[in-house]
């Protein structure tokens, strides 16, 4: 599976359940979210703007995705909602690797460019280094309608967090991608 197939298979509406382990505080927190992933064309103004922000030719992108979330976490019971645009830029020499441009980062609320690697098992690993922390996230499909994610977040100086998410596609929101034999096995 390549990055474009991965994003197309991710398109749709998902229910996400998350468990985060805050290692420094020795506490666990649960949360749930509704997530919508919408595909964007390469000439979408948001894709072009994000590429230009990072001085990358928009023609190098095949397109992107808008991810919108709305959820709660156990500790604060406040609504956590937002949206971010993601644009993968494949490496022309290594088609299973590339940059991932994000309008809003996972750990910091500013734009960030990380890297991705598509594994031979169809899993995508995202690596992002911020000024004060390092994030690594692995996302894969157990089936077409079940996505799993694990992530680690390390603050330079020792603080860490580990997270596991299961994401179930909501009925009636099938991805526009055709399920290939390879994707069905992942």
Give the termini separation. Answer: 9 Å
Q: Supply the CATH superfamily name.
A: Calycin beta-barrel core domain
Strand content: over 45%
CATH fold-level topology: Lipocalin
Biggest sheet strand order reads 1-2-3-4-5-6-7-8-9-10
In total, the number of domains comes to: 1
Principal-axes geometry comes out as: globular
Low-confidence stretches: 178-186
SSE map:
Layout: H1 3-10, E1 12-22, E2 27-41, H2 45-53, E3 63-73, E4 79-90, E5 97-102, E6 112-118, E7 124-129, E8 133-143, E9 146-155, E10 160-169, H3 181-185
Antiparallel strand pairs: 1-2, 1-10, 2-3, 3-4, 4-5, 5-6, 6-7, 7-8, 8-9, 9-10
Give an account of the 3D structure.
By secondary structure, this protein is mainly beta. The protein has a single domain, classed as Lipocalin. 12% of the residues lie in helices and 53% in strands. The chain has three helices and ten strands. A ten-stranded antiparallel barrel has the order 1-2-3-4-5-6-7-8-9-10. The longest helix has 9 residues, at 45-53. The relative contact order is 0.20. Mean pLDDT is 86; it is low at 178-186.
